[in-house]
Amino acid sequence: MASRPSIRIARKAHSKAEADFATWLMMAKLGSFDDLPPNAQGFLLSYRARLERMSEAESKAVAVREVYDAYYGEMGGVGAAPELEALATSVDNGVVRSQGQRKPPPARQSAAAPERPAVRKSVPALLIFAAMVALLVAYKFLIN
Question: Does the predicted TM-score (pTM) go above 0.85?
């Protein structure tokens, strides 16, 4: 099993590879292929060549794997990049970690939660203006 630092590097490299490849692919589709760095252009050219031999999903998976391998080495990973399936089910101190999406935390509830949500009543601007005029008239009356 790979050590903890190399697993961290592998996870970072894989997520960066997925994000970068999706960005490069979108930029190429929008006509900005020439603006991409040379390494990105190389990965996209090999991706396009593979599209003739395999499906889009398979070609994309292979391309992401190539980018992942390159990033793993650049980020300081030692040896060959670990397999992605091994990362998804890695065991750390007897605990298997899920790679699925996490649920959002439940909303905080007050100590005395009412049965129905409180409705905030708005005060019309005309009422506020009338109250301010009344206060000014009362002030002038009391001063004189």
Answer: no
Has residue 74 got a pLDDT over 50? yes
- Tell me the per-residue pLDDT of 11-32, one tens digit each, with 9 for 90 and over: 888 888 899 899 988 988 888 8
* Backbone dihedral region for residue 76 (phi beyond 0: left; psi -120 to 50: alpha; all else: beta): left
Name the residue among 3, 10, 5 with its Cα closest to residue 87.
Answer: 10
Residue 86: closest CA among 76, 75, 94, 97: 97
DSSP string, the chain: ---HHHHHHHHHHHHHHHHHHHHHHHHHHTT-GGGS-HHHHHHHHHHHHHHTTS-HHHHHHHHHHHHHHHHHHHTT--SSPPPHHHHHT-EETTEEPP-SPPPPPPPP--SS--SSPPPPPPPPHHHHHHHHHHHHHHHHHHH-
Please give the share of the chain, as a percent, with pLDDT higher than 90.
Answer: 10
* Residue with token string 């000014």: 136
Structure tokens at 144: 């004189």
